[in-house]
Each structure stands twice: as C-alpha cells, then as structure tokens.
C-alpha cells in the first residue's frame, strides 16, 4: 500500500527545484512554507487513505459501458465526490471562479501523490484542469461564466477531443466538421476516439472540448477550430437542460488504467451536437496547445507517480521476502532478498530513477510558475523557454522511467511479480500508456531537438548546461565524498554539450533528417545528465548534515554517477554516429 | 499474424552459429543440409498455420480450473494432438524410445518458431523435454521403459516441481517430504507452487518430477531427492491405473501466458502420492539441474520468439499506418510512419536486438551439441564450458531483449498498442515472465560471474573474447563498409576484456561482494559485445553479395555498432565503479 513520501517531495520542491523562488515572486497572496507543508501533508493523507484503496478494484472491475452509460468501479464515485468536496480539484484555477491558483509546483507535488495512489483516478481531473486552462485563456466571458466555476470545483469534468481513427499524431488529417448555426452556435458532427473520461458517472455534466473543421476552413491544421460541447445543455440559470447530440459508443479494452474510461465519442447522430466556439475560428490548435503543454507535464508526473509506487512496493517486498543467505549473515535462517547485492543495486536503480523523474517534473513546474511570475519581460521569456525545454523531457523521460521502474518492480518480486494479485504487474501495465499519449515520446524528442534546442539561437540550452555545470563544479570542490560524482557529472555534461552543438550544427546545415534520427538518444542523454545533476544538487544541500536522509541522498547521487552518467558518452556517440545507418534503412523497399 | 522467418533462421544456424560443424560431427545418421531446410520449412509452416491462430484465443480464455480439472482454451487440445501426431515432440529424445535425436541447434530453431507462434503453447512441450532429459540421464531402466516412449512422443507430458511458497530461488528451504514404502516406492507429501502445465486436458497422463526430502536427509540442498509421480499410476501393460494422490488446487491469474496453466499442486492429501526415485537418494538436485540447463536455453528462446513476433507486427503496422509527411514525400496524403527517422531507428533497434538474441541462443545450442559430439575429451570439455558460459547469457540477455522489444512494439503502435485487441500488448505481458523463471536474470548474472568466468582459470572466457576479436579484425580488414563497425567492436571487446579481468581479480582477491554488485551490468556488457560480433559475423558472410538480405545484415551490424556497442564502455565503468555505492547501501537499516 502507498505511503505518501511527503518529506522527500517537500525536500525536492524546496532544495532542488526552487520553490522558494516561486513563493518569493507570488502575485496572489501568502503561500508560506508552513502552508506548503500543510497542503502536502493533507494531499498525501487523502492520496494514501482515500484514493489508494481504489487502485486495485479499479483495475479488476474497470469502467463498464452499458446502453451508453459508463459505470465507474465500486467506491470510485464516492471518493471523487469526497475529493472535490475537499477542494482538491480547485488547487489551480482562477480565484474569480473559485480556484486557489496555487503554484504549479505545488499542484505537481499533489498530482504526484494522487497518481501514485491511482493513476486511473488522477487522470480524470487532469483532463478537467486542461479544459479549465483552455477556457481561462481563450473562451468568451459568457462561456467562462457558465462553465468555469463548475469545472474548477470539479462538479463537472472536462475532456479533450482530438484523435480520430485517421488522425492521431497528425492532426492535419482531422475530419470532424462543424457547421455554423443561425444563433451563433455551431453543430458538430464526427467520431472521436481515445477520449479519456469521455463518459462516466462522477458528475452530472461533462464538458467536451472538441476539434473540428468549418466547411470553409483551410486544409491542414490552420483550418481547425475548438468547440465546447456539453453533454447536457446548460440553462440560463445554470441548471441542466436537454441532452446534447453526443454519445459514448464504446469503451476500449486496454492493457492498463482499466478504470479510466477511454471512449469512442459520436457527435451529431441526429441534428448535430450543439457547440460553442472557443477562441477564434480556425485557431483551435493554438487553444488546444494551451491544454497540451501542461497536460504533458501531467503525464510525466504519471510516470513519476507509478515509479514511486512500484519502488515502495518492491522495497517492502525485498525486506520481507527471505531467500538465501547474504554475506556476513549469522544465525539461522535466510536473509531478506534486499540484503543481496544484485537486489540492492536494483533497489538503488529504482530509487535513483524515481528521484530523477521527480526533480525533472518539479523543475518543469518551477519554470512554468516563473514564466508567469517573473518580474520583467526578459525573465518571463527566459522561463518560458526553460519551461518549453523541460516539458518534452518531463513528459518522455519521466514516463520512460515509469515503465522501466515498474518493470524492475516486477522483477524484484520474482515469480510473485507475474501474479496479478501481487499488484506489481498492474503498475507495469498502467505505466505503459504514458510514453504514448499526449504526443509519443518519439514526438517529444523531435520537439526537443527541432523546436526547443534552437530557442534563442541555442543559448537557452547552453545556459541550462551552464547551470548544471555549476553543480558539477560545486561538487568537485565540496570534498572527497562529492568530488568523484562531480567529476563524472562534468564529463557527462561535456557529452551533452558536444551532442547539443552537433545537433544545432546539423539543424543549421539543413541536415534535419540526421537530427531527427538522433532525437531519442539525445533526449535520453539530456535526461540522464540533468537527472545526475539534480541528484547531486540534492546531495550537496545536505552537506555537513549527519541525518540518514542526507546520507541516502548522497548515496543515490554516487550510485547514479557511477552507474548511469557514463551512459552519456555512449549516447553522444549514438547521436553523432548512428544517423547514417538509420537513414540508410528504408523499410518501404 | 506470424510469418516464420525460415531463411533468416537457416542463415543464422549455418553462417553465424556453426551448424555445419555440428552436422560434420554427428554421430547418429545423416542430417543433411536439405533435411535441415525441410525441417525448418515444415516446422515454420506448422507454427504459422496451426499454432499461431491459438495465441490470441489462449490469451483471452486462459486455462480454466474447475473441480480440479483444467480446461485448455478452444482449439488448443486439437492442435496439440496434431502437433504430436506430426512427430514434433520427438525431434529430440533417444531413438531407443522413438526420439529423432536431432541436434539441439535444430530443435532450438524449431522452438523459436513455436514460441513466436504462441509462447504459452510452446512452453508445455518444453517442460516435457526437460523431463525426458532427466529420465534419460538418471532414471532406472524400468522407469525409462514405462515412461520415455510416451513422453518423447508427447502422448504424455511432464512437469518440474521445485518451487514451494518459502523456497523459490533458494531450494535449501524445501519442505516437501518423501517416505520410503516397503515396495521400493515412496510416498510424497507437500505443496508445490508455480507448476507449469501441472494440470491440463492435452494428455491422458501427466508425469510430475518432484523434489522432496527423505526423513533422514541432510539439511539443505544435499538432502533433496527427485521423484517421478504420475497423475495416473501405470499398469504393467502400460495402460492407466488408479488416480494418484496428487491434485491441482489452483491456477494462477497471471500478467501473461494466460493459456499456460500455472498450478498449485498438492501431493499426499490422503496416504501420500506414490513416487519412484530418480537417480540416487539425496542427489535430486543434480538430476534437476540436467533439466534446468536446457530449460534455461529454452527460456532464452522464448525471449527470442516473442521479440521476433513483436518486430514483425510493429513493422507491418508501421508500413500500414500513415501519419505525417516524411522528408522527400511527394504527392498527396500522409507517409507510412515507417518512413519517419525515429520510427526507422526503432524498427532497426527491434530487428537488431532480435537477431542478437537469435545468434546467442543458437550459439548456445551449438556449444551444447558440440559438447556431446566433439571427438576428444579436451574438445568436449571446451564445448561443455562454452555451453555453460553461454547458457546464462542466452537465458537472461535474450529474455531482457524479449521484454525490451515487446515494449518498443507497443510504442510503435502508438495508442493502438495500448488496446488489447491490437495484440502488441499481449507480447509485452507474455514476455515479462521470461526474465523471472528458470532462475531470475539476476541469478543468471551471478552464475555467469561467479561460476562461469572462472572456468579453466578464466581461459575459457578469454578464449571466447579472442574469437570475437577475430571477427573485429576480419571486419576492420574487409573494406570501408565493414571497417568502422570492426573498429567499434574492437573497442567494445577491450571494455569486455577489462571488465573480465577486473571481475576475475575481484574474485581471486576475495572481493566477492563487489563482483556480485556488478554482475548484472557485466552480463549486459557481455551480451552487447557478443551480439555486436555476431551481427558483424553475419554481415561478413555476405561480403561481395549484392542481395538485399546481405545489405540488410550489414545495415543491422552498422546500426548496432554505432548505437549500442558504445554502451559497453559505460557498462565497464559501471562494473568497476558502482560496487562501492551498491555495497554502501543497506536497505535493512
């Protein structure tokens, strides 16, 4: 069972990811250190006590579709109601409509705990949050008045409707259509697939945000508009009116997150679903990207959440399960398997990867906060570029970590890991979606290399490497126990720097295909180097501290430095050398 | 759907793994090249046409237990009967009892295809094969006369009963007990778990091989005996007699291989299950190890089989699914995703890893054959040590590859990969058991480092590195298209050599714990270097050959050399440097 790692989360927020800087800049009131601790404590309590018990029953029962109605697993609706009653859905969102508008960093921390408790549960509110952001930024005052308060409180939930069978990663191929009605509304027709929480029994109404084309729209992504399509129309007094012409036609049978209803949605069986335009006609993609960027961090946090849970369970099992006798074992009986060096190595791996994912996600949240809060334009641009740079890393590297750590968790459990009742297998199944949705990890890597590396002529990224180098230097000068890790980090950053310059040159020289061929290894190289720096930063924060926590953090940084940082040289080599074979391969012949 | 890659398999057997050498030494008749091709062709046909259609229905229905009886999925029993009628179960086994005694290499190739078609199906006969080997080597003439012909034909199936709840990796803790009866038989009592194909409806009888302790046995593994316990007793005329006192009390609900019944077996509810001793009292573990070594290769082949299947499906999907427009695309419409560099890289990865797994498994089979066939004692010792060295590599590296490639296969499918109906997810679930059973991959790595590396004072392993170096040299001298890969392989082998000497020194100096801490990265280092050498060996065999197959093999070798071989330097670093942090970590405090 999940135990919320509140103190490690607080440490990472404050000592590694820069929460203090955000709190110093806050524009909206007094979020104090004490309040932060209280929120984390209470969010962790809710996660562990209320949400975590849902996870297994959710996996077993799944979301069930019958006659167009989706029934959620036993206990799920009650917990959702209790969750929104506690105000948890409203951590973010504008105060004008009841939101607490807390820093993204704090929300990220809470989201980690809810995802550890149950990824399928935390996913629904994540979509609602995205809808709130899109409405706050792009919707008319009328639409905001009608929908925002209920979405922020969680009384209603929101969805994102992008994908169609022929249009997944490539939204150019979108076919859903919208027709203008005389009263200024629109009629929406078409089929959408893979719609997360498209239908459920948590709330009385569901607010669908739907991408569709107007009849006279230009081809491609410049001809896509965004519409708000409520499941039930809303009367002037806010009460629910007629059922809209939208229905759930199917729920997917998935590898994992069984309790999250992944729906096929049909719009316009009859006269068309009534929709309201969000933003301007043909500018829908820009509105949708508002949702998607934060959703990408939220998906990265799913990887983090699953990794934390899998690590906790593997450690508990390894301490409990006895097999063999470890070196130095005295007395009768067998040793806990955690005493064997190969299992210790595996547990260190799991802990280090999880902490790396946490540091990356929180740093991304920090940049998002700073981009909003920083005092001057230049600083806001800097942080906005930093957020843009870290988002593909958080989305893809943390989700790769989720899968890897969940798989190691199965392995630590031995044969029991393959038995569903143990629970380790569920994480392995649940985690597997996160590298896929919200832009596959391959697309994230392409985004990083082709759009983010060139920001400010490469200076944004070079500046980031410079900050990481400062950590390496500090470690190298911090005494014997830090020096080796510092030296190894410096080498890793040299590899990152070499690969970065190679990429920037390739892009500048028009060798785009070569850059694309190396995008995924480049992203991994970035993630490992960044992660190693963050672990070391955390360890340095405990310099001179004799506590077990400080010792553990130093150990993780040393382990990661000696086991993972050397991989960066290999990845750099792959970036600069493998493109030739990749591009010589033509699977189409 | 699966298509048997017969020509690639034949190529790997003959040009990479040394089948010619085995055929030249064969002691038992005329296995010609033509016969080899005919057997591969026919085994592949049976796999693709008869077995492959079982795989999805097996996953959906699973093996179902009711009142102690296990019903296999629809169509499974008929196909099994048709499989044994075709003589496929008798490829191995002594001719005295109807076996064809074909080389292990040929059996490995057939087993790959059956596992690709359905891992859950191929697993049952693998266990029977293990029982046959144990009986051939250790059982009395009487037991052989009674059981071998029926097990070799497949009319009856066999099982291995080792694990108990408290005794998994550590058989010291075994508690099942055996009592001597007056008639020379034994009475067996106890509970066994995780018994693969412990109960099913394929055959009229099931022959359980069971580890248990005699009352006066020494403690630990020196006090374990092996017994044959048939489900039904066998009359003197070979007909089936009374039901023995053994039953299936449960079938596990597993992550994958749902159709393989994983049973809890209860021996001796009443007066004890009647058992016959195999080999000598208290020497049961030695007999069991006869089964386990070949079973380890067979599990490695499961990883290979799943990797091949996942690769085929991902490639087919990537050629079919269209999204986006690749560079150079002309005309209307979208490109197959296989045209995008990141997907091409992924497909190359999957193909290269699969071929590496194939080469390693077949080379292991080659060594097993040569250990039996070689003319003189020294050669047999050499090959026996080689087989012992390659077995943990085949078991663990090929199964890690199975998981990795299956996961990449899900990723290539995008959102569809997470939908169970697509089929990619099943491979990801099925593959996950192989790194666990038959000795976890961690235990394989420990076996490699502590038992296999020191064989002949390390000369066996040094000799192996020398053979791989000859491949690197040949490539470096084979012209421009091979030279770079040859140079990269030489560097990788230098890393392998350095890590090997470090390990041997650590063991010699009594730093056993340090060696154990680095065992898993060492095994991966060995696998990558070995795999890179085998890909290059295959490519060199096509030197001067203008065929597409030869070009593809060179491309895979180049890709692997530029993308994976550099990882060896990082792994060497991990072997020699990470032990300090691993051993400083004490999860018990």
From TrEMBL, chains A, B:
It catalyses: 3-(methylsulfanyl)propanoyl-CoA + oxidized [electron-transfer flavoprotein] + H(+) = 3-(methylsulfanyl)acryloyl-CoA + reduced [electron-transfer flavoprotein]. It comes from the Bacteria. Its EC number is 1.3.99.41. InterPro entries: Acyl-CoA_dh-like_C_dom, Acyl-CoA_Oxase/DH_mid-dom, Acyl-CoA_Oxase/DH_mid-dom_sf, AcylCo_DH-like_C, AcylCo_DH/oxidase_C, AcylCoA_DH/ox_N, AcylCoA_DH/ox_N_sf, AcylCoA_DH/oxidase_NM_dom_sf. Residues 282-448 form the Acyl-CoA dehydrogenase/oxidase C-terminal domain. Residues 160-266 form the Acyl-CoA oxidase/dehydrogenase middle domain. Residues 38-155 form the Acyl-CoA dehydrogenase/oxidase N-terminal domain. Residues 466-585 form the Acetyl-CoA dehydrogenase-like C-terminal domain. Pfam families: Acyl-CoA_dh_1 (PF00441), Acyl-CoA_dh_C (PF12806), Acyl-CoA_dh_M (PF02770), Acyl-CoA_dh_N (PF02771). It is an enzyme of class 1 (oxidoreductase). PANTHER family: ACYL-COA DEHYDROGENASE, BROAD-SPECIFICITY LINEAR ACYL-COA DEHYDROGENASE FADE5. Involved in the assimilation of dimethylsulphoniopropionate (DMSP), an important compound in the fixation of carbon in marine phytoplankton, by mediating the conversion of 3-(methylthio)propanoyl-CoA (MMPA-CoA) to 3-(methylthio)acryloyl-CoA (MTA-CoA). Belongs to the acyl-CoA dehydrogenase family. This is 3-methylmercaptopropionyl-CoA dehydrogenase. It comes from Stappia indica.
